[in-house]
Specification:
The protein is mainly β. It has one domain (about 20-95). It has one helix and six strands, in the order H-E-E-E-E-E-E. It has a six-stranded antiparallel β-barrel with strand order 1-2-3-6-5-4.
Amino acid sequence: MASALITCERRAAPRSTAPGFGVIDVAVIRPGLTVSVMTISPRGALVESAAPIRPGVRTELTLDAADGRRWPVGVEVLRCWVAALDPVRYRAAMRFEGPLPAG
C-alpha cells in the first residue's frame, strides 16, 4: 500500500509579487544592502541578494511603494540559503516585526 504524502501549509498569509502588493521589486536592508523582493505578504518577505544575510539578525527593510512612499519595517531574518551559483545569489526569508504601514 502506498503511503500518502500530506503537506501542511506553513505560510501565515498568502504571498504576492512586489508589484501585486503595491511596492517596487527592489528594496534596501540596513545598512545599505540592495535586495530584490521575490514575494511578499503582510507578514513577511522573501528577498534575493548578492551577499548572505545572517539568520537571526533583526534589521530594517525599506520598501518603496509604487506611488513614491517609503515603508521602513523591522524584520527578523529567519533563513538564508544559496539560490544560484553563477553568479552567486542568496535568498532570505524575513518576518516583519510589526504590521506594514496602512496604505
